[in-house]
Write a structure and sequence with these properties.
247 residues; mainly alpha; three-stranded antiparallel beta sheet; 14 helices
Length: 247
């Protein structure tokens, strides 16, 4: 923790603007970073429901279960209450159900069930006049990432049309955006906020002050563990903190 504070002070003194904000965010563990960004997104004077939706709908069930109590401990308000207050309609229903529903995070998929879900989505959307939002919410909130990916494949195979296009056609607004984020996360797509953060971090070494930062970081070792970059003070027995997500 001491070395984490040392590097935070170093970054604060050597960087400015959006790059500084991005790097300092990336020093936090993933759950804390999510909570920080969500709180900013739910500010009434700068409400940003797209960011909040991206974060919530791209997280696994286990990540959500870690995030909810942490958010309350940090801000003394339940994440569900923020959503109740700041969202409405089908968008609100989907986010609340997604937070409340435990999902299997593993890779196994029931292909027959995925096919049935693809048919159910078709009947709830493109096959009928109007949209059965309850079916969309149920399937997108209750199924795992691997299962949603299998549904997308089945939908394309059965109807020769990408599921994402069907979602765009049948839904709108933040509700549409939430479903697209779920579908894209299932397909392995990067969240916009994550990509932006990584690009900001990568630009550090293109700036004039990068040489100063690199020079002062000589006392630290940088290595990669399970897709995550760790920074460690030379001579320390354990990594000091997580610096950023894996490339």
């Amino acid at each position: 923790m001491r070395y984490s504070k040392e590097l935070s002070k170093l970054i604060s003194s050597e960087l400015t603007g959006d790059v500084k904000k991005a790097v300092l965010l990336w020093l936090q563990d993933p759950a804390t970073r999510d909570a920080t960004l969500l709180k900013k997104a739910f500010r009434e004077d700068r409400l940003n429901l797209r960011v909040a939706t991206e974060i919530i709908c791209s997280r696994t069930s286990s990540q959500i279960q870690q995030l909810k109590p942490l958010y309350f401990n940090m801000y003394r308000v339940y994440l569900e209450h923020e959503i109740e207050h700041q969202t409405h309609g089908h968008h609100k229903k989907m986010l609340l159900k997604y937070l409340a529903t435990p999902r299997y995070d593993g890779p196994e998929v029931d292909q027959l069930m995925a096919g049935d879900d693809a048919r159910a989505l078709y009947k709830a959307g493109e096959k009928r006049l109007g949209t059965d939002e309850k079916t969309f919410i149920r399937i997108f909130c209750e199924r795992s990432r691997a299962h949603l990916a299998a549904i997308s494949e089945a939908y394309l195979r059965l109807y020769e049309r990408p599921l994402e296009k069907a979602v765009k056609h049948e839904t709108s607004g933040h509700f549409d955006f939430a479903e697209l984020q779920k579908n894209r996360a299932a397909s392995g797509c990067q969240v916009v906020a994550t990509v932006a953060g990584k690009e900001a971090v990568s630009r550090i070494f293109a700036k004039e002050k990068a040489a100063i930062l690199q020079k002062r970081m000589k006392g630290f070792r940088i290595y990669k563990l399970q897709g995550t970059f760790l920074w460690q003070k030379m001579g320390a027995n354990t990594p000091s903190f997580v610096a950023s997500g894996g490339a």
